[in-house]
Amino acid sequence: MPAKKDKLKVLLRRTTIRQRVRQLARQIERDFKGQRVYFVCILKGACIFLADLLRELRLDTSVDFIAVSSYGKGAASSGEVRITKDLDHSIEGLNVIIVEDILDTGLTLNYLYRILQARKPRTLKVAALLDKPARRRKEVPVDYVGFKIPDVFVVGYGLDLAEQYRNLPDIYALPARR
Ligand code: 5GP
Fold this sequence. Notes:
Layout: E1 9-12, H1 14-31, E2 36-43, H2 47-56, E3 60-70, E4 81-85, E5 95-103, H3 107-117, E6 123-131, E7 144-148, E8 153-155, E9 171-174
Parallel strand pairs: 2-3, 2-5, 5-6, 6-7
Antiparallel strand pairs: 1-9, 3-4, 8-9
Helix pairs in contact: 1-2
The chain binds guanosine-5'-monophosphate (5GP).
């Protein structure tokens, strides 16, 4: 259970998430039938989504991880993103799906998409569990979206607040802080 002090409210229950992840897996299977897919997980928030998605997929898969940090996070975000942990292997000629926890302003994914596209994958797609369209500042081509959510700060299912709450199986909304 989450700590009482933060007044968390359930936004998406684990059963709802499981069902949607299953649907996304079916969609990916249809799109990549008989092919190998190289999943690029953006650390750390997307790790739980990736783990559940992978176990649903009946496809040939590989996994790699990338970590980024952005300068001036939040409302003052400059859009400058720095890779703090790069992929282990080249993605040239591969079917790549970037796996992200949440698409907010779009600055992170917009940057990462361009960086990875320049490495000449065969195909490059994006899977985001959550999408907050109201906050978008940069367009990102998203192919697989779990849930569109309102402009609330969420935690759980891999998403954190100062490294807390990633382990919660459901997704919770926090009262407005902005
Ligand atoms: P963007 O560059 O799209 O603004 O930022 C995406 C990143 O911001 C996500 O990968 C995540 O780390 C963080 N983020 C954005 N919204 C939320 C949220 O509601 N909750 C949490 N825990 N992180 C968020």
